[in-house]
Specification:
Blueprint: E1 4-5, E2 7-8, E3 18-19, H1 22-26, E4 33-37, E5 48-51, E6 78-81, E7 87-90, E8 99-101, H2 103-112, E9 121-125, H3 133-141, E10 146-150, H4 156-173, E11 178-182, E12 199-201, E13 206-210, E14 222-224, H5 230-233, E15 239-242, E16 247-255, E17 258-265, E18 267-269, E19 275-279, E20 282-283, H6 286-290, H7 296-308, E21 312-315, H8 321-334, E22 341-346, H9 349-353, H10 355-361, E23 364-368, H11 369-372, H12 381-394, E24 399-402, H13 417-428, E25 433-436, H14 438-441, H15 446-466, H16 482-501, E26 505-509, H17 514-522, E27 528-532, H18 535-541, E28 547-552, H19 558-571, E29 580-585, E30 588-595
């Protein structure tokens, strides 16, 4: 494993060769940093090494000051002990010499070390049971990386309140929770159940689906449908699936605008759930195919998301790449300089037909298995999930596995063993993130559901590393320029070196987040410390596998950046002398191997 690379100084005089093994680097010579400059030839990839001076964070060469005292008080953001049992977060001061890190991640690093940090990210849908500030904080403490707001439910005023509370949580408590807004889409769906939070459909009951507008309270067992041609399109004998098959009805009679249906598979009806109908074993999709991907309501919601500065927009029922391109142009025109990322939800036959072009055009994808399972045979959902996860990784796009991960925990405090196995498979496939929907929005045990996702993720990731299961996935070039190709080669080499040398962490300094994303794509064994000077980039990186995003002001001088980083992280007890790290930057084409001094 430990092949020797000849190191050269800046002059023509050769210095003694250093063997790049874990053991040799753990006890460095007087120069503890090896810098690999990368004059890349794609016919024959080469790494040329040169030595660099010692990186001593306490030397006179470093102008940064230690900002954190032993009790954690810091202008760089940290905890001050206020009593024997309580700690108060001190917000960071943007003075150029501070560093911001998620408080939960900081605690994990201190308690369990580098290797035990969770790589799979967690998305929680916020609803009535989790919209309070204390409930949001409990989710953040439990590991929530992204808070999702679903525009199918609630008013814009309610969603604005949730966004404000998440932002306040980040500012006051030191978190970096990103916000994802999910559009409703223009597919056929139910109404709001007359204001009720849910309704139970029992086996054998007769329910009426109607396009009529009722002035007063909805009659008992009556559901509004948003599509005016619904009664004309369905036929007696059709199967009507609610929310991807969670409840099933059979059409037994049509009376004008009303459709009488018999419940054949009982279950819980939720407001604004999607409706699909099947005939002779096939999905009836002609009308859905004619509906626009982005409805008039969606456009108003998108304007709201732009004005509120959300980090991600998840677009429902994407049919083609043109929709994504049009939306990106619209956002650019409405908000110049906006860095909102677009997540394409893969949940329809049209999405699968145009899968690769949709993912290429998007900034990420979500496997929405609930609605997808209503449009394809159930037995195909697992293979489609794996296909989407692998394709997103090859194309360097983050991917979220969503819908019904822990559905039983809406009502029960423990999941089924099958649900645990389902979560484990998504983690084993190396998906970037897992998402809770009803479990965290309206379930009785949102924090317990999040704990299950977190503990299962940690266990499967540890098993993967312990078994040395380095999957040989072919990662094609995704860059469109020569400089992009160089960055990809640097990241691929860095990940391979990190695994071979068993380094403790990879440091990446990135202004846009792109290089951190390329490293995440490689899925190295060690965590990736992603340093960026932009708060919005830091939040967006919180969706991607294995990245621990920090906010840190840095320059083009890598030696100064490392001096500063070592000092600040050591002061917060996040690293210690002797830790072995690799450092890369999108400002300098090099890989640096070093021990923390």
């Amino acid at each position: 494993m430990a092949q020797s690379l000849q190191l050269f100084t800046s002059s023509t005089t050769r210095s003694p060769p250093i063997s790049l093994s874990k053991h040799s680097l753990s006890k460095p010579p007087s120069s503890s940093t090896a810098t690999f400059r990368l004059p890349v030839s794609f016919n024959q990839f080469s790494i040329r090494a040169s030595s660099s001076p010692d990186l001593n964070p306490l030397s006179s060469a470093s102008t940064s000051q230690v900002l954190v005292s032993e009790n954690g008080s810091s202008s760089g953001g940290g905890f001050v002990s206020t009593s024997a049992t309580t700690r108060e977060f001190v917000p960071a001061v943007s003075d150029g010499s501070s560093i911001d890190v998620d408080t939960v991640t900081e605690a994990e690093l201190k308690e369990n070390g580098f290797r035990s940090t969770r790589r799979t990210k967690l998305v929680c849908t916020i609803g009535p049971v989790t919209c309070g500030f204390e409930q949001l904080e409990a989710l953040a403490v439990g590991g929530m990386n992204v808070a999702r707001i679903n525009m199918c439910h609630g008013t814009r005023e309610w969603h604005r309140m949730v966004i404000e509370r998440v932002r306040r949580l980040n500012e006051e408590k030191g978190y970096a929770v990103a916000i994802m807004m999910d559009t409703e889409g223009s597919e056929i769906h139910m109404g709001d159940l007359g204001g009720a939070s849910s309704a139970k459909a029992e086996d054998g009951e007769i329910w009426t689906f109607s396009v009529r507008a009722f002035d007063s309270t909805l009659p008992e067992r009556t559901i509004n449908v948003n599509y005016e041609g619904f009664a004309e399109d369905v036929r007696v004998g059709d199967d009507l699936l609610v929310d991807g098959g969670m409840v099933r009805f059979e059409v037994i009679e049509k009376i004008g605008p009303d459709v009488k249906c018999l419940c054949t598979d009982p279950g819980l009806l939720l407001p604004r759930a999607n409706l699909t109908f099947w005939r002779d074993g096939h999905l009836v999709r002609e009308r859905n195919a004619m509906l626009p991907t982005i409805s008039s309501k969606d456009w108003l919601d998108i304007d709201f998301g732009i004005s509120e500065g959300v980090d991600f927009l998840a677009i429902s029922f994407v049919k083609s790449a043109e929709v994504i391109k049009h939306l990106k142009s619209y956002i650019a025109a409405r908000s110049r300089g906006s860095d909102i990322s677009i997540i394409a939800k893969i949940e329809s036959l049209d999405s699968l037909k145009n899968l690769e072009e949709i993912i290429v055009a998007s900034d990420g994808a979500m496997v929405a298995r609930g609605d997808l399972g209503a449009q394809i045979p159930l037995e195909q959902v697992p293979s489609v999930q794996q296909k989407v996860v692998q394709l997103c990784r090859r194309l360097n796009k983050p991917v979220i596995v969503a819908s019904q991960l822990l559905e039983s925990m809406i009502e029960y405090p423990t999941p089924t063993r099958a649900e645990v196995a389902d979560v484990s498979e998504a983690v084993r496939q190396r998906a970037d993130a897992l998402m809770l929907s009803g479990e965290s929005a309206m379930g009785q045990f949102p924090e317990k559901a999040l704990t299950v996702l977190r503990s299962v993720s940690l266990r499967i990731e540890k098993w993967w590393r312990d078994e040395k299961r380095h999957e040989a996935m072919e990662l094609p070039e995704v860059g469109s320029s020569y400089s992009d190709s160089i960055l990809e080669e640097i990241c691929n080499s860095t990940a391979k070196m990190a695994n071979n040398l068993e380094v403790d962490a990879i440091f990446v300094y990135t202004k846009t987040g792109h290089m951190a994303s390329l490293l995440s794509r490689c899925r190295p064994d060690c965590p990736i410390f992603a340093f960026t000077s932009t708060t919005s980039v830091r939040r967006r990186l919180n969706l991607q596998w294995g990245l621990i995003p920090f906010r840190l002001s840095f320059s083009d001088d890598m030696e100064n950046n490392l001096n500063k980083t070592f000092m600040l992280l050591k002061a917060r007890n996040l690293i210690k002398s002797g830790d072995l790290v690799l450092a890369v930057s999108d400002m300098l084409q090099s890989i640096q191997v070093m021990n923390v001094p």
